[in-house]
Amino acid sequence: MPTTTRVVRSWHRVDRLAFQQKIHDSALGRHVASQSAEELFALYESELRCLVDEFAPECTIHVRQRLLSLWFDTDCRSIRCTCWKLERKYMHSKTSEDRQAWVDALHKKHTDLEAKKTQYWTNCISSDNDNPAKLWQSMSQLLGRQNSNESQICILVFVLTIFSPILSCVLRYLQWLQKWAPYF
Description:
Blueprint: E1 3-9, H1 16-25, H2 37-55, E2 58-64, H3 74-93, H4 96-127, H5 132-143, H6 149-180
Antiparallel strand pairs: 1-2
């Protein structure tokens, strides 16, 4: 998984009243008409930078970017976004109604995403069912993604849908041979 680094500030942890008071107490709080625009801009930038560094210091975070699954479409993104919105609403309000709405949305998200995933893999296998070369090509693509639950599910579905009639036919033939072998 590719990892990127970002420099961020914790703005939500800033004490706004203390920050406002510091701005008022700093050189920014005193209006000096004798300075030029360049001097005022430099003062504004230096003072605000110092205050921001004090109240919300920069910190470096490492972000692992993970590719979304092939079956994750715009509907899935919309469902996920709705859950995030309801979670933020609950975290802000802390009411039982907002919590219940968020929990219900989470349950719906899990069932909808599972249904989407199952439908995608079923369609993937059944669309390539008539063309063995394309089926094996799809399987090779899926197997190229190591440690993937989707590829394991796809293999299981493939074996069950394609090979089970063949295996049952071979088993019947072996049973027939075992039954009639003494007569040969």
